Amino acid sequence: MAGRVEGKVAFITGAARGQGRSHAVRLAEEGADIIALDLMEPLAHVPYPGATEDDLAETVRLVESLDRRIIARKGDVRDLESVKKVVDEGVAEFGRLDIVCANAGIMIMHEWQNGTTDIWNETIATNMTGVWNTVMATAQHVINSGGGSMILTSSAAGLKGQPFLNPYVAAKHGVVGIMRAFATELAEHNVRVNTLHPTGVATTMVTGLGESMTDFIGRHPRLGPMTMNLLPIEISEPIDQSNAVLYLASDEARYVTSTTFAVDAGTTQY
What we know:
Shape: globular
CATH topology: Rossmann fold
Helix content: 40-55%
Order of helices and strands: EHEHEHEHEHEHHHE
CATH class: Alpha Beta
CATH architecture: 3-Layer(aba) Sandwich
Strand content: 5-15%
Structural class: alpha/beta
CATH superfamily: NAD(P)-binding Rossmann-like Domain
Strand order of the largest sheet: 3-2-1-4-5-6-7
Number of strands: 7
Distance between the termini: 35 Å
Radius of gyration: 18 Å
């Protein structure tokens, strides 16, 4: 079925690479125009490199190659006004907003005793407050468009505990609470709000951690099974998550709201 989001406009955070880029391309393939935001700066405690202007330019190229329009801007989900500026510019250009993908996130692995206030604050600010900021900056625009779909990226770690990710797990559980609260209030405006819960995804956020997980599990072998999938894969691809985003954004999911949508290869069953 082609054109599943034809004529709609989607706002995507963390759109320069990884899942965000994949979501932008998949939605564009099905007819959406894109408003893209990314920080494109390193963060102090994140061990892998941040996205770059070249990364965001590649997202633009891929979307435009599909004959769709895109506005791509630098912005910081930790700052509500920064997000609003990008959203408002995009809506002024495209005239509406129908789909919101609160995708931006970071991951900092450490054993619990090595946690710091700085790591906690940086993770919560991006992964949880950033999602709240994204909803706050976009909700009225989606209401003005007659309703739509908000997809908030949580994680398998938003449904169960996982080791070596204390602030990350807390933030991703918090995203579920944000989703349920907004889904309740926005339903009367025909705005659907759901969370997406991926297993590991082959993006820089995961692959950039190098051997950290292996090293940690080597020291704590009893915790290893918590990171495993039921299905015989080690990691999913961004497109696996983007196909779920497309479904939740489309009219096929018109009565799907306030759900925790897991594309997790069964990892949350361990």
